[in-house]
Amino acid sequence: MDIRLDKNAYGKNAIHLSKIIRHPDRHDIRQISVNISLSGDFEKVHTEGNNKKVLPTDTMKNTVYALAKDHFTTSIEAFGLYLADHFLTNNSQISEATVSLTEHCWKRMIFDDDPHPHSFVGGGSEKHETHIIKDHQHTLLSSGIKDLLILKTTDSGFEHYIKDKYTTLKETDDRIFSTECDITWIYDTVPPDPEHLYQAIRENLLHTFATHKSLSVQHTLYAMGDAVLKTFPEVKEITLKMPNKHHILFNLQQFGMENNNEVFIATDEPYGYITGTLSRQGQ
Amino acid sequence: MDIRLDKNAYGKNAIHLSKIIRHPDRHDIRQISVNISLSGDFEKVHTEGNNKKVLPTDTMKNTVYALAKDHFTTSIEAFGLYLADHFLTNNSQISEATVSLTEHCWKRMIFDDDPHPHSFVGGGSEKHETHIIKDHQHTLLSSGIKDLLILKTTDSGFEHYIKDKYTTLKETDDRIFSTECDITWIYDTVPPDPEHLYQAIRENLLHTFATHKSLSVQHTLYAMGDAVLKTFPEVKEITLKMPNKHHILFNLQQFGMENNNEVFIATDEPYGYITGTLSRQGQ
Amino acid sequence: MDIRLDKNAYGKNAIHLSKIIRHPDRHDIRQISVNISLSGDFEKVHTEGNNKKVLPTDTMKNTVYALAKDHFTTSIEAFGLYLADHFLTNNSQISEATVSLTEHCWKRMIFDDDPHPHSFVGGGSEKHETHIIKDHQHTLLSSGIKDLLILKTTDSGFEHYIKDKYTTLKETDDRIFSTECDITWIYDTVPPDPEHLYQAIRENLLHTFATHKSLSVQHTLYAMGDAVLKTFPEVKEITLKMPNKHHILFNLQQFGMENNNEVFIATDEPYGYITGTLSRQGQ
Amino acid sequence: MDIRLDKNAYGKNAIHLSKIIRHPDRHDIRQISVNISLSGDFEKVHTEGNNKKVLPTDTMKNTVYALAKDHFTTSIEAFGLYLADHFLTNNSQISEATVSLTEHCWKRMIFDDDPHPHSFVGGGSEKHETHIIKDHQHTLLSSGIKDLLILKTTDSGFEHYIKDKYTTLKETDDRIFSTECDITWIYDTVPPDPEHLYQAIRENLLHTFATHKSLSVQHTLYAMGDAVLKTFPEVKEITLKMPNKHHILFNLQQFGMENNNEVFIATDEPYGYITGTLSRQGQ
């Protein structure tokens, strides 16, 4: 019996890096976490313990810090593409490099409408992400939002679904809709200003969520993806993962009180989990 | 040998509640987590398994949801005080009630400068907290900020400290100063508008952090507490817990490059942990 | 321009369930977390908000609890297969059901070599998992171990790798090797006793890890997968994800002391991340 | 108005250290996390930014690693006492040192009843802790168990409690009792073999939990503390924190089925939180 090594990859994850970008009148602070993963001609590493083609993951980490000095100056997309290219170009044994960057959001402090030159507030769960998969022929660039927590207090219902013997859920035409979503999209080609485009797509997603008359999570998920594809020709495919963070109406009737959609149990688990991918016909 | 039951308390933690407050032109969403802890005449519960004076923690939870309908309408401080009073008044066996509330921050979405009437973005780590400790004579009210992540890229140094045989840290007059801090303060008396006061104290804390020429975390911690006590006569004591989230200069010299305070390793652990309590003399 | 809905799925995650199985002389406690995900004829749910084919995720949750009474009596694999079959059989609009179960480990307390009939210790990170993907023709059954934390203090080295200008890692023929691994394998057919087989495969994996002379994480990963495929004909493919939880030699030389592989900095991040899939030739 | 600096302290937290202890026939692996906190004559650090009496937290970290080589050879209690003494003795400005150590549990692998000389399984949530508070006159030594998750499937009830208008909980004489508890105890004097004593106290706690006919969490908490104080004269005070991890009977009646205490919803939040401290009379 012969054993075959199929897919394999290795790399360094959770490379946490911060950078001060020094302008004459102010500082910017950027904080990112980088994952590097490489695959290629590594069969003998596994089968023989032969490391001569192995670029150590410690070296990958050093490389990210070293290259950040001159090449992490604009978007995480641009830095990620530079990193992927660097590893592919300098290591002929590598056939594919996957680089993922997550940017943690720092907001400049403002006092009396004056932005402070070097002080920031952080701590949001929402993060900007990018993923680059690059081989010697192709580059796949995707960007996305991770852990975006959004909620609407109305314009959301869920009715006319299947009832079977295990159904206890009550229909409602007015509920809280809340989701901590991950949304990623694939670009056709590398856009000239990925940071600006990211902000525009984010705004578009929020606007659809806010204004949509939602008949289900699926219904709004589709509307959000549809609007992005129709507004941004740069985007060829979008995937939305929308866990439903249930806010369950608390039963006040048992105490002789009415609950007119006012008081809810905010729950984390269990949670509905709705996913969908939309793309353009013919692509 | 006789055994004595000293301190004891019981209650319900992590009661997660959301509430829609419905105005004619807009909704507010409030999301809180409530902890209740009671102590009093509970010796026989422990020693005999006699439950006749036990208000079940499940009932505490129900009570929080039921009272939220009519009494959680303004600040978490006001609702917390109402809850503490409710448990003390209705249960003569209770000598002390501790109520803690944490408010999770939802920000209204804004499109083209128009605040949206019912859609929100959440997900920040920063939370507004309040703690009430109440017995039949006294009420202690404290408010605070939890998990406030702040950073400044300059105006911070650390020099002239002790050097011994285990010292490897290098002195610096220019470093990143970042902390995910918990800050709580005790009010003399219940203020008329705790939410407004909270925002003003938060702003004061951020402003001191941003503008202080920091010679150490302790130095800035003290300045922040000092400014709050001097600006807000309502505050009689303030405690600051400021973990030092180190951003460590990456050694680029080993690669023949200079690192002019640009590229850092962002670390979570180990972390410095600095705490201090300030109050007014003579109190 | 036309938009197409590609992949889509929905379900309920994190359905936490415990069950007491009552034997005449003892109780067993089983605790599982279940994820259900369904796909099928759901296009109009997305595009029209038409819910008439939607089985609500709340009903999925109820179904899991209801079916657990009579059908969660042996392995999680058997219960998962029953659940997948239930959803497919009772809902013609569903083309594929994915069911994942994670079992949390409770160990019976033992006093003076006597197993206690109804008391248990839990709290391990290690979990037994199973994943079932089932459509009207095929059933794919995989089992695995999640968050298995293992460590060896010797018989592990890493040498003879590429050195480039960003290399700072020192070669070593004796290091700590620690990994919190996820290992999953696919069965050819449903085995008669999946719980027993799981324990045997787990033992095999630990034994290879313990006794292998490791020249790299990859080298040991391959050896572990290879041994499972050679020992268990029921397994047709195995995937190992082995993050390298680095224990870094602390530099005691700077204090005039020697560190003969004794004192280490135990780190979580950044971490090496090594993955591989092995299968039999010709399959 | 004058401001006073009351309590203040500083130190380093989360110093993660592993050590191989090399015996002729086997290795031991020990993994600990250390927190150091110092207080003393540090007023001017805060008020003037004068650092000349500051031992940097980075130096504390280095010191822990350096001293681990020769002095972390037996129990965490012994190493903690050595560390506390070191900081007090070498820094006259320090009036009090608090040292906390947490040991993460590694279990030796066993194959065919043979303990393996250098391979281990870890990953349990349960940890052994110790806290030392030391000044120039006194040493307070406490030890404890953190995150011990235990469960019993019977011999636990909760009845005859207060009913009021918000009561919905049903009385039961047979429920699951599960708690992830933190238990710490204070020693009169430093015991000769703290590791052995720790294991004996842990066993005693488990045995009481397993065999007690529980009428409430409080009732069992008291019994556990009582038994430790009566069995171990070295212990003068014990504090138990016992969150009630509720397993809630799932309502199968709504589907025409019976649930004879078989199927439960396993919940994390909200949770009951019961605490108590017991000591000997006259102390």
What does this structure look like?
- 4 copies of one chain form a homotetramer.
- In chain A, helix 2 crosses helix 3 (about 75-90) and helix 4 runs antiparallel to helix 5.
- The first copy, chain A, is about 25% helix and about 40% strand.
- Chain A is globular.
- Chain A is of the alpha+beta class and about 280 residues long.
- In chain A, the strands form 3 sheets. Chain A has an 8-stranded antiparallel β-sheet, with helices on one face. A two-stranded antiparallel sheet of chain A has the order 4-5.
- Chain A has helices spanning about 45-50, 55-70, 75-90, 195-210, 215-230; strands at about 5-20, 25-40, 95-105, 105-110, 115-120, 125-135, 140-150, 175-185, 235-245, 245-250, 265, 270-280.
- In chain A, strand 4 (about 105-110) and strand 5 form a beta hairpin.
- Chain A has 2 domains: about 10-135, Urate Oxidase (Roll); about 150-280, Urate Oxidase, CATH 3.10.270.10.
- The longest helix of chain A is centred in the C-terminal third of the chain and has 18 residues, at about 195-210.
Query: Could you say how many structural domains of chain A there are in total?
Result: 2
**What Rg of chain A do the Cα atoms give?**
23 Å
CATH superfamily of the largest domain in chain A: Urate Oxidase
CATH class membership of the largest domain in chain A:
Alpha Beta
Mean pLDDT of chain A: 97
Structural class of chain A: alpha+beta
> What is the helix fraction of residues of chain A, given as a range?
10-25%
Order of helices and strands of chain A: EEHHHEEEEEEHHEEEE
Instruction: Sketch the major β-sheet of chain A.
Output: 8 strands, antiparallel
Q: Helix count of chain A, per DSSP? A: 5
The number of E-state strands of chain A comes to 12
- Per the CATH scheme, the topology name of the largest domain in chain A is Urate Oxidase
- In quaternary terms, these chains amount to homotetramer
Distance between the termini of chain A: 42 Å
Largest interface: A-C, 80 and 80 residues
Low-confidence stretches of chain A: none
- Overall 3D form of chain A: globular
Beta-strand fraction estimate of chain A: 35-45%
Name the strands of the widest sheet of chain A in spatial order. 1-2-3-6-7-8-9-12
